[in-house]
């Protein structure tokens, strides 16, 4: 069909064309390539591809306008209305084979993708030189175009991306979007033309819209139809929803939720026109991500929560299992699941490795460390940095610009098992951490505390991509740690935003502020025995608006941190109360890590089960059989008095007491070990 047939003045098509011309913005690079090709200075075939709604049809209409202004005959073939056969196509497009002054525009090519090989091998070679063909579709061209040397100079491939920010703003101007709606509309739609236009049409009509505007369900549904379309099955939809929720999707991640279908679903995802690939995995176009997320949360909030929990559990396991170098990326992927939580910092990560990267400290970096510390925090801080670089060089990480290698920041994670007078004298911040720990809940045998220090050039001290990397490293250290009692983060003059950010992560600022030279530092502390890593992660992982104040899981209580002597005394009491669950429920032991690890079970029941298990375990040790019998007779069989228990066992009372005391000590030692090290005791602290 000739483009000029419906665009003449006096027809509705002419009026529509004028309105479209007025709203067309950007695409200057694509227009330059088209003009060059039309004037004989470039290719003969332009292949434009991009996801739905990205503006391919609008660009082709602009190409048609440009061609008519240049007195070229324009013909349009639309894949949505044409039968996908070679005969139908040739009948519609035959004019381009006879006239070198013709421009042929093929739109919605994805509907006739099966003709691509025939078009490349049979039809296009018959087009006269001087004619120009533009193909526009959702999918990129087959690799055989580029593998054929004959097409090297004749084909130009144009991937169509989002509009630049200035062009997106110009499109909102042409749509009459008021100033107060631009920020939320851009946050939702970015530079995606269809999302911008649909959002603008709805937002402009909504007289009550404000900076908190969000697209309604009609906008979301329309975008889903246009961008995603019909999906082959519920499994395909679920795979796509996982891809939208996760930062990057790998086959391994899909396997966590779709164990039988992961491989084929990953192959299907990577072929979708709105899904792109990076070195880290697959990710959808931002607008597709937004509308899929919004639709699922509205349509099936319970299903959304289940999916979130599965992905969260998989990514949390990945943080714990990651190699040291992969820890920041693994934490970033985990935290990305909470991007809608406004209490968290903005997610600055890109779809690849990013502008900055983390490195280990080398000897040649120490001079730079001292210069950065001196410049930003003074000589006292530099002296402290030098001390720790000698003392624990392995604790340091260096942050460099990826492109130039320029060092912009340093961090150190200092694990400390006992007070060392030299360390305390060299670093008032470490001294302050020890003073706080000793004054609150001191370390128990086998535990340690860790102090985080950082030195960054001024442009990178606030919430920034570099600070993201540093905080991901800190969080990774905390989630991977074993036997860590306290962690401390030292910040010089933290801003209000930093204070709120760290408090959200349950890092509480303490009153005492240690000083290094002329500067005071705020210490943010967390007791990992009171709120262990799993409980802490559960608080962070909660979806907004998915728990009520009455929900017992909404705000887990802090755990009790008992000294060894206190723990021993409570175990003895609990053994005596073993047959009385109401009294067991009042034991401080039900608020220890020991019981917290048995989530989902009544605490008093869990404590009773643990005590019985600890007694029963002694039966398997030939050296402890006598202790097992004494404990069993005394606490499991409900014998009223110890004298009667000794009589039942046929033992002198002093012998019975010796076996009983030894058995209680064995039970205490077992439970104390679990309290300190958890159920899995194979890992060493990091």
UniProtKB/TrEMBL annotation:
Which GO molecular function terms does the record list? ATP binding
What Pfam families does the record point to?
Answer: AAA_16
Instruction: List each copy of the Orc1-like AAA ATPase domain by range.
Output: 24-101
Which InterPro entries does the UniProt entry name for this protein?
AAA_16, P-loop_NTPase
Q: Does the keyword Cytoplasm apply?
A: no
Q: Keywords assigned by UniProt?
A: ATP-binding, Nucleotide-binding
This protein's name: ATP-binding protein
This chain's source organism reads Nonomuraea diastatica
């Amino acid at each position: 069909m000739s483009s000029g047939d419906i665009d003449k003045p006096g027809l509705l098509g002419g009026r529509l064309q004028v309105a479209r011309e007025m709203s067309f913005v950007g695409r200057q690079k694509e227009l330059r390539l088209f003009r060059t090709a039309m004037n004989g200075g470039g290719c003969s075939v332009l292949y434009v591809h991009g996801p739905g709604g990205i503006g391919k049809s609008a660009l082709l209409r602009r190409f048609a306008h440009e061609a008519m202004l240049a007195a070229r005959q324009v013909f349009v073939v639309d894949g949505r209305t044409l039968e996908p056969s070679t005969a139908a196509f040739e009948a519609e497009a035959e004019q381009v084979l006879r006239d070198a002054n013709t421009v042929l525009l093929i739109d919605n090519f994805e509907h006739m993708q099966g003709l691509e090989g025939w078009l490349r091998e049979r039809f296009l070679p018959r087009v006269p030189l001087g004619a120009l063909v533009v193909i526009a579709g959702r999918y990129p061209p087959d690799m055989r175009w580029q593998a054929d040397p004959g097409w090297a100079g004749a084909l130009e491939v144009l991937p169509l991306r989002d509009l630049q920010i200035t062009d997106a703003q110009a499109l909102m101007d042409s749509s009459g979007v008021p100033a107060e709606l631009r920020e939320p509309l851009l946050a939702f739609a970015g530079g995606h033309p269809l999302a911008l236009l649909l959002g603008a049409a709805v937002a402009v009509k909504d007289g009550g819209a404000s900076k908190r505007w969000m697209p309604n369900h009609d906008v979301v549904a329309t975008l889903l139809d246009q961008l995603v379309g019909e999906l082959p099955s519920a499994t395909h939809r679920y795979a796509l929803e996982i891809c939208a929720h996760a930062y990057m999707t790998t086959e391994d991640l899909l396997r966590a939720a779709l164990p039988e279908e992961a491989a084929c679903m990953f192959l299907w995802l990577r072929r979708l026109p709105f899904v792109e690939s990076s070195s880290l995995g697959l990710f959808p176009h931002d607008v597709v991500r937004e509308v899929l997320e919004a639709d699922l949360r509205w349509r099936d909030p319970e299903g959304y929560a289940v999916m979130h929990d599965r992905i969260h559990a998989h990514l949390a396991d990945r943080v714990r299992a990651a190699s040291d170098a992969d820890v920041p990326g693994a934490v970033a992927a985990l935290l990305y699941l909470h991007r809608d939580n406004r209490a968290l910092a903005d997610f600055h990560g890109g779809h690849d490795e990013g502008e900055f990267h983390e490195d280990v400290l080398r000897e040649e970096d120490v001079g730079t460390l001292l210069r950065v510390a001196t410049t930003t925090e003074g000589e006292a801080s530099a002296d402290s940095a030098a001390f720790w670089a000698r003392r624990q060089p392995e604790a340091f990480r260096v942050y460099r610009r990826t492109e130039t290698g320029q060092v912009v920041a340093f961090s150190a994670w200092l694990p400390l098992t006992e007070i060392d007078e030299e360390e305390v004298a060299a670093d008032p911040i470490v001294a302050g951490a020890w003073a706080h720990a000793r004054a609150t809940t001191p370390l128990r045998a086998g535990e340690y505390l860790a102090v985080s220090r950082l030195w960054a050039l001024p442009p990178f001290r606030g919430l920034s991509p570099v600070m993201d990397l540093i905080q991901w490293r800190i969080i990774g250290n905390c989630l991977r740690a074993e036997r860590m009692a306290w962690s401390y983060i030292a910040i010089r003059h933290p801003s209000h935003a930093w204070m709120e950010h760290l408090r959200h992560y349950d890092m509480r600022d303490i009153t005492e502020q240690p000083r290094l030279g002329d500067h005071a530092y705020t210490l943010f502390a967390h007791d990992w025995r009171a709120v262990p890593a799993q409980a802490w992660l559960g608080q962070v992982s909660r979806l907004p608006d998915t728990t009520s104040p009455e929900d017992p899981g909404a705000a887990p209580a802090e755990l009790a941190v008992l000294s060894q002597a206190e723990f021993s005394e409570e175990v003895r009491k609990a053994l005596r109360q073993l047959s009385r669950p109401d009294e067991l429920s009042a034991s401080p032991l039900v608020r220890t890590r020991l019981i917290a690890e048995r989530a989902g079970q009544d605490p008093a029941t869990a404590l009773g089960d643990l005590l019985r298990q600890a007694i029963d375990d002694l039966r398997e040790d030939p050296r402890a059989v006598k202790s097992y019998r004494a404990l069993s007779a005394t606490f499991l069989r409900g014998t009223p008095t110890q004298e009667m228990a000794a009589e039942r066992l046929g033992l002198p009372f002093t012998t019975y007491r010796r076996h009983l005391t030894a058995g209680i000590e064995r039970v205490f030692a077992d439970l104390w070990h679990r309290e300190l090290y958890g159920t899995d005791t194979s890992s060493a602290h990091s």
